[in-house]
Amino acid sequence: MNNRTVGAIDDTALEEQRRFASLVFDINEAYFSQTGRHRLALTHSYGCQQNVADGEKLNGQLAEMGYGFTDNADEADIIIYNTCAVREHAEDRVYGNLGALKHNKRRKPNMLIGVCGCMTQQEHVAEKIKKSYPYVDMVFGTYAIHKLPEMVYGTLLNRKRVFDLEERQNYITEGLPVRHDGTLKAWLPVMYGCNNFCTYCIVPYVRGRERSRSSETIIAEAKQLVESGFKEIMLLGQNVNSYGNTTPGELSFAELLKRINAIEGDFRIKFMTSHPKDATAELFNAIAQSEKVERHIHLPVQCGSNRILKLMNRGYTAEKYLETIELARQTIKDAAFTSDIIVGFPGETYEDFKETLALLDKVRYDALFTFIYSSRQGTRAAEMEDPVPYKDKTEWFAELLKVQSKIAVEQYQKKIGSVVRVLAEAKGKTEGSLSGKTEHGTTCEFPAHEQLLGSFVNVKVTDAQNWSLVGEIQQ
Ligand code: SAH
Ligand code: SF4
Ligand code: F3S
């Protein structure tokens, strides 16, 4: 194991977990020989790509413990909710779904229920789950995913609830088994945590400080994914542009992109998320020189008012952001941009909001992920005055969507006549067609034989519909 990172959960600790996994495996095998039925697991990840990538590690470990998988909660012998804390809505969904599990547990008292992920890493939430959901057997945080076998073994054997909410701040866990959700697209985390402390955001509190995986490990994993037939690798981090910053001597993210691009094979590289304050000419040059990297940058601006950007602690002004976009446009031919926007940050006025609309008009994003501000306990913004009624915020939100949908239609129209490279990922909405994403991250649908599923095809765009392009394969 490479120990250049701040610290790695050591091999002995992981070996111990493998031992627990094999003990659970034996228990599950014994159950199978008695009943003729394999025990089944259901995991659900509620959050971002990092959270989904964690979910694949939960599944990898569950597979090692001899569990099969199901989507049906009534069939499951173990259910794990891998939660997200980024907005209140995300948390409410978990509470709702957890409430419903009470009946499952009543019908099937031997089943196990676990809750993990970002929500549980907040003390008040962990307390609430412990008290109000007594039928939850395991509550564990974002730092304890590798301890799943031990927790499952303990609860299976002793029927005692287990909690692991310890903050293993500077640690990275390598070597966990991963059960990929698909066969075409793979997540590849390059770093964990965040140091930015945007004032609205809970992520740094629940995910800890920034720590990068070693580039050797990442590159080796990327090679393996390509060899196993994956066609798209999504490099993940809360702020990939600061990759390596906390590890002396480590590659920059731009260099990492180039090295992964140099891996032989027919695949595409994506990455998420780039923080505008750290998006540099070096990064844009690397993208321009790396033909496998998509021509799309997700560069969340959050809002267009300098006053609010400062209160958000984002580390750039609207002008600086626009310069960054301009630099990217000059460096990367035909670059597409998407962004995240928060409406109704504490103290935001309609005047501030109009500056966001003005910025959208200047940048002309292909797509936006839009959110109404949600107060998160423990963050600095949660202490700020928030006088604007929620109803007003929803009206601004609707206005934002209207402005953006007009821009998106225009952006899509501009693509008619061009030839795009699409990874044929799934059957399209129309009979006899396939659909997939272009190098700009846009959905495109085209008539094609199913045999082409999983390959890259060149498509001439003939029409632009709402949120997708339509085209024909170019021979
Ligand atoms: N690290 C990424 C974002 C991770 S969270 C970045 O900095 O871009 C994804 C998005 O959720 C953020 O970009 C932001 O738009 C939104 N978000 C985060 N906290 C929020 C909150 N408290 N209320 C509303 N939206 C929020
Ligand atoms: Fe949250 Fe900001 Fe970190 Fe993104 S960069 S995860 S918004 S604190
Ligand atoms: Fe949610 Fe945690 Fe991701 S809070 S957005 S699952 S890092």
Automatic annotation (TrEMBL):
GO terms for cellular component: cytosol. Residues 180-410 form the Radical SAM core domain. Keywords: 4Fe-4S, Cytoplasm, Iron, Iron-sulfur, Metal-binding, S-adenosyl-L-methionine, Transferase, tRNA processing. It holds the Pfam family TRAM. The keyword Iron-sulfur applies. Its EC number is 2.8.4.3. InterPro entries: Elp3/MiaA/NifB-like_rSAM, Methylthiotransferase, Methylthiotransferase_CS, Methylthiotransferase_N, Methylthiotransferase_N_sf, MiaB_methiolase, rSAM, rSAM_horseshoe. Catalyzes the methylthiolation of N6-(dimethylallyl)adenosine (i(6)A), leading to the formation of 2-methylthio-N6-(dimethylallyl)adenosine (ms(2)i(6)A) at position 37 in tRNAs that read codons beginning with uridine. This is tRNA-2-methylthio-N(6)-dimethylallyladenosine synthase. The lineage of its organism: Bacteria, Bacillati, Bacillota, Clostridia, Eubacteriales.
